[in-house]
Amino acid sequence: MALNHQRRTDKWWETEYSDNIHSYLQYHEVKWRMVYGARSPQIHLRPVLVKTIRSIAKTCEMSNVCVHLAVTLMDFFMDNHDLKFDTIMLVSFACLTLAAKIEEHCLKIPKLNTMQNVISKDVTNSHFRKVEMKILMFFEFNVAVPTVAHFIEFYKDHFFCDSDFYHNEFASILKDKFNRMILSYQDASLESIKLISYNPSMVAASIILTTRHTLGLVPCWTPQLRKVTGYLKKDLVQCCSLLGRNVMQHRKFVPIDEGYLSSSPGFQSPIIMASKKKRSHIDVPNIILSKRTAF
Q: Residue 188 in contact with residue 247, Cβ under 8 Å?
């Protein structure tokens, strides 16, 4: 017999199993995590690729979760392959379509013709499917991975505490600033290559901490947030520092609603692979299977 009083929702963070799902996501992010070396020869093109993904996602009305997943797949695939200029856009678009097939309704999955203005017109649907398959095989078909956006949605429900609303007339103003600031920091985290090496849950928790600190809420890290995220304030200091630095650069050089920040191609992640495997080369006419990098 159905329980009519139970709330029906597609949002996992609003269900009675949210704590269990969150625990699984934190386990999965560690189990899946690949080492990021910031060693792609095309890393200087990343800001353009991220902006393109976000632009297509906006046109197709995709979620922020889908965008974060697409960029995650693109980052780790690029880090292990040499890509020709006319191929790299195709790869980024394939990452977006794979992310959409996981996170979105089938009607929102973009079609190849939406990219015809930035990729070769000779690319066929058959060839595009081969590129998708190459990406899937590289990740061993494990592409449903947690991202910063997944964790943010859960942590947002625990953002405020009772002491934040001692002036009720400011509650709506505070919540509006909170929503806009969270989106701004999420965009900043998406554009920074320096945050890729951190677990998504840590980046998400750092966004919450940074937002509360920026809004002047005391304490900036509550016992409830510590319990929910599993992180102490001291665990997030370095990540918050990188996030804040990236936001300041973002505001200085790029309008906040525009898109992306060009990160330095010379940056080396604090977690570097002990031995770098030879990257395989992917070309438009020929697709060569690559081995997954050992880590």
A: yes
